[in-house]
Amino acid sequence: xxxxxxxxxxxxxxxxxxxxxxxxxxxxxxxxxxxxxxxxxxxxxxxxxxxxxxxxxxxxxxxxxxxxxxxxxxxxxxxxxxxxxxxxxxxxxxxxxxxxxxxxxxxxxxxxxxxxxxxxxxxx
Length: 124
Fold this sequence. Notes:
Layout: H1 2-14, E1 26-29, E2 34-41, E3 46-53, E4 59-70, E5 76-87, E6 92-98, E7 109-114
Antiparallel strand pairs: 1-2, 2-3, 3-6, 4-5, 4-7
């Protein structure tokens, strides 16, 4: 009975290492105010996650460039600009975007974010 329990325990401990690729989650910081949480590439063909305004001030007209790369950041798989609008302090915005890319291993995919630089327009 002890060998069976040891085998079962080993199987449970190794389970996270062999879960389906769609179960990989990624979270982190975009800038000092914006965070991304639980970003993943799902089995349903969508990229999902949350963008969070963690600052005590509102962010106006937030645009966010999102792209996926390999872990070495040498190849871009997918890219999109999201218009999130105004984000109140503590706001959490759900993101769900079609993602039908089959070339990469989702467990080795890195989520990248940036807020585009504002355009400089001058009247002459």
